[in-house]
User: Fold these one by one.
Assistant:
Number 1:
Amino acid sequence: MGNQYSYNYNQRNSIAQPMKDFQPERYQGMWYEQAKTINIPWQKDCCYATAEYTYTDSKIELVNTCYNNQGKHQIKGIATMVPTKCNYAMLKVKFENMPGCGDYYVYYTDYDNFAIVGSPRRGYLWILSRERIISKENKMMLFNKARCLGYNIHLLKFNVFPQVMNLPKTVKANKEYHKLIYKDKCTEHYLMSLKPGQMVDWETHIGSQTTIVQQGEATFKLEGQTFVLNKAGDSIVIEPGVKHFFQNTGKKDLKLISIYAPKD
C-alpha cells in the first residue's frame, strides 16, 4: 500500500489511548464492520459482521452477528464503562458462554458515521461504519487514523457487504448523466440520465455491456441494426468489441443502468 501506510513497530507493545468524553448513548445503534485484524479467533471465516449496541442503565447491551458456511451466528454480551475522570472510552465486555471479560477501547468515533475500536495493546482492531457501503476516500481516512494509532493495517481483512437497493426506484431517482454506483475487479455499474435528444456517441468496450431502461425511450444502433427500448425493464446486451451508440429518442428524460463486465 506504499509508504503512507508504514507501521511503527515501536508502538506495538505500548497502550493506545482511547478517546475522551465518550458518550455511550450516542454510540448505541447498528454498526457495520468494514475491516478487522486477521487474528481474531472467534470471527474466523465470518463475513457480513455487524454489532448492535443498546445503552440502558449505565451499561451497553450488545449483539454481534456474522455469517459463515454454517449460516447465521450471533453472540450477546454486556459492556460496562471503566470509571475514569475524563470519561475515557474504556469498556469491559462479557460475552455469554465465554469466560472472563475483554477490553474494548473506542479510539475514534464521530457517532454518526464511523468508529475505530480495538484492544489496549493493539492485538485486535475493528473499523466500523453506520452504512453498509463507504467510499474509498473514507476508507483511506480510517486506515490513516488506524495507522496513526500504531496498528499495522497490512493485517486488516476487509468485509464486503451486499449492496441492497430498489433498482427501479434508484435508476429513476438518478439525475446525473453518468453515475458510478458499484465496481469490483470485474464489473462496473453506472446509472445514466439523458435529456431528450441527448446521445452517447459511438463506442466499443473490451467486455459486454448490459443496459436496462427504467424510464423513457432509448434507440440503439449497432452493426447496421436498430433496437428501440421503450418499456420499463427493456434491456439489451452488447457483446465485447461491438461498435454502438444510443440516443434518447423519447419526450422524457431517459433513465437507465449499464453494467460493464469486465470493466474497461
Note: DSSP finds three helices and 18 strands in the chain.
Number 2:
Amino acid sequence: MALPKISIITINYNEPLLERTCESVVNQTFKDYEWIVIDGGSTSSLTLETLIKHEKNMAYFISEPDCGVYDAMNKGIEQASGDWLIFMNAGDCFYDNKSLQSMVPYIDQNKNCAVVYGGILREHKEKLEPYFIKQKRLDDLFFLVDTIMHQSSFIRRDMFVKYGKYRDEFRVVSDWAKFAQMYWAGEKFKSVDFIVSKYNLNGISSTISRDDIFMEYVKIWIEYQPWVFEIDRRLLKAYKYFYSILYNLFFTGELHRYFTIRKNTYKTLLKYTEMCPERLIK
C-alpha cells in the first residue's frame, strides 16, 4: 500500500471549535492524505461527541494526557507516514475544501525545499485579516523575532529526522524555533501566494504573558544565535531609530513591512538588554 503524500496532524484538548477543524479536514477534495488526531484526554462532552463522530476518518487517534502542545505534536509526528506534514490543530481550519488540492502542485515542484508555506486568514473576535509573509522577507534577522505559521506550512517529514522533533520544554515558541533552526542551517523555504488556512488568534499564546514568551525566545537565541548578546546597547538604539525613520518617511506596502520587521527586531533586542543586562559584554 502506497504511503500518503500528506499527513494532517490535529492536536486537541477540550477545544470548542474542534468541529470546524474536523469538517475542514474531511471535506478536502484532495484525498491522498492521512489524518492523525492526538487528544490530551478531553473531558468536554461536546469535544468527545465530535471525536466519536469523526473517528472513522482518522488514520490514527489517541486520547491520553500529555505534557503540553509540543508533546502532543511530537506524538503526531511519530505516527505520521506522509511525505509532507501540516499541523491543523483544533480551533484552526483549512481556508476552503480545495486548500490541499491547491497546494499539491507547489509541493511537487519544490521537493528540495524543507517547507512550502502559504498565507493565513487571522481571526480575532469580529475581525478577519489576510496575512502573508513573502519569501523575500525571510532572512536570518527575520527569524530572530518572527516566524511563518505552521497552520499554512507543509514540512517535509524527513526534516524532523534531521533536526529532531519539537522541544516540549517550551510552551509557545517551539514551532518558531524549529523553522528558525532549519532556515539558519541553510534549508530552503518556498512561499505561495494564496491563503491555506484560518488561524484562531485565541490560542494558548494569547493566555501567556509577553515577558514569558519573550524569555522563551531568549533561550533559543542563546543556543542558536549567541552573537545577539555581543551587540552594544547604544548600537541597538541607533539601528532601531534608523529603521524607524526609513520606513516612516520613504516606504509603503511590502517595503514598509520589510523595514517594520527590522525596526521591531532591534526594538526586541533592546528590550532583552534591559531585561538581562548581566549577559551583555561590557
Note: The longest strand covers residues 189-200.
Number 3:
Amino acid sequence: MVEKLIAASVTKSEWAALAMLAGSVLLLLLFIPKAAGKLPEKIIGKDGAPMVLVPAGPFTMGSEGSGEDEKPLHRVYLDAFYMDQYEVTTKQFARFLEKSRRKPPDHWSAVRLPQLGNRPVVGVDWHNADAYCRWAERRLPSEAEWEKAARGPEVRAYPWGEDIPNASLANFDKSCILCNVYEEVLKPVGSYEKGKSPYGIYDMAGNVLEWTADWYDERYYKRSPDRNPTGPSQGLSKVVRGGSWLSRRTLLQTGLRNWESPASRSAHVGFRCAQDAQK
C-alpha cells in the first residue's frame, strides 16, 4: 500500500529523471578505470616474500662522487613496481633447490636449517638468482629500479639519509678468513630498522651486494634513456649494488656501481626480486 502511494505521488517525468540518474551512476561505477584504483602498498610473493610498492614517478639517479661511471646525475622515470622487502634467505632458497634440483650455491654446506634460515643466501651466481626470481614468478630488478628502491625520489647518500654508516644502520666492514660466513658475519635479514630505505626496504646497504638484471657499462649513464632504462643489450659483467659485510663504509653509498661476472659465486653477493605492479 505504501509503495503504491509513493508511486502515485511521483510524476512520469520525475520517474524518467530518476532512471537517468541511476543509469549515470551505474555507468560511472562500471567504467571508472581500474588504473585509477590505488595499488596495495604491500603484497606477498609466491615464495612468501613480502614485497613493497615503489610508486611510479621520476627520481634522480647517479652521483657526483668519485666514480666516473656514476656520472652524470640524471632524472629517470620508472613505472610502478614491487621490490622484495628483504634479501632472499637460505630458507627460501632451500625450497627452490628442492623443486628445481639445481646445484647448490657455494658455501651451502655451511647452512644449518632452520637455525640459519633467516640469513641472506650467498654464493649464488647471476644465472641461479635469475632462475629463482623466475621460479617465484618475479624477476631481478633493473639497476634503475634497485637505486630508486634504495634512495627514493631524491638524492640520498645512503638509504636512511645522510648520516655516516655505523653499526646501528648496516652490516659492513667485517672480515671472514676461513670462517662460516653464515654464522659469523651475515646478519638475519631485516636486522637494521634504522637503516631502511624511504620505502621501508631493508638492507639496501651492507649485509650482501645484490645482483641486478642489467649488464654493466661504465659509460651507460651518458646515453641512458630517461624512462624505464634496462641497461645495455649485452656485456661481460652484471651490475651488483648495495655494498656488503665486507665493504668499507665509503662503499655503501646508494649511487655506487659495482659489477661481477655472471658466473661469480661470491660469499658477499646475494639478491632480491622485483615485479611489475598490476596494470
Note: The two ends are 50 Å apart (CA to CA).
Number 4:
Amino acid sequence: MQCRGRLKVSDPVLSDNLRTTGNILANGVSPANNQPNARIVRKQIWAGLRDPKAYFTAVIHGAVVLGITSINCFLPTFILAFGFGPRKCLLSSITFSVTLSSSLMVVAVETQLFSMIPYGVATVSLVTVCLLSDRINSKGPVLLLCLATSGIGYIILMATTNKVALIAGACLVTLGIFPGGILNVAWININHGGYTKRSTAWAMAQVTGNACGIVGTQVYRDPPRFLAGHGTLLGSLVLAIGATVTNYLWMKTANRKKEESAMKWRNEGRENPNRNKTYEELLDYHPDFKYIL
C-alpha cells in the first residue's frame, strides 16, 4: 500500500527540507512494509502454517461465514409467521376479486420490505462498528463484542416463539455477524508480516470459511424453530469467542516480549541488529512490528 500526496511550498529551502524528510520517511517505511516485486516464498508458507494466529483467525472466519450463509435459511419463516405468505396472497386475490398477478406483486413488495429489517440493521452496524474500530485502533475487543452480540441473538431465537422477539434476535445476529467478518479480515491482514505469510493466513481463513459456508446451508432442517441450526451456530460463535480471546492474549504477550527486548537493548546501549532487516526477512517477528490488538 502506498500513499502519495503533493504539497506546494513557496520557500525553496523549506521545500527542499520537506522533500528530504519525506524521502527519508518513505525509504524507511517502504522497505519494511512493502517489498518491491514480492514473490511467493516457500519458507513463509511454512511460517504461516506454524503460526497459531492463523488458526485462531481461521476459526473466527469459519464461524462468521457460517452465520452469514445461514441467515437466509430461517429468516423466511419469520415472514410467514407475520402472515406474509402465498396463502394470504391467494386468499386476497379471491376475496377482493383482484388479479392474482397484482396481488402477488403487492405481497411480494411487503415481504421484501419486511425481510430487509435485519439487513438494514447490519448495514448501519457494519459502517459504525468498523469506523469505531479504526478510531480506537483496536480489533479484538470490538470483534469480541460483535460475536457476543450475535450469540445473544441466537439464544433469543432458540428461547422464544414470540414474533417480535424473533425479529429482534435476528437483528442482533446480523448486527454482530456482518461487522465481525470485516474486523476479522482486517485483523488477519495487519498482523502478519511478509507477503506470502499474510497470503497464507488469509488462504487458511478462506478455506475454513468456504467449508463452513456449505455446512451453514445444511444444518437448518427442522422448521420453524430450527433449534439444531441455531444451536450449531451458537456453538460455533462460542468457539470463535474463545479463539478471539486467545489470539488477543497471544499477541499481547508477544508485544510485551518485544518491548522487554527493546528495553534490554537500550539499557545495554546497543541497537538490535535485526532492526535493519525488512519484514519480508523477519516477518511479523521483526522487533519493530507491533501487533494491533
Note: The domain at 47-79+118-259 is CATH 1.20.1250.20 (Growth Hormone; Chain: A;).
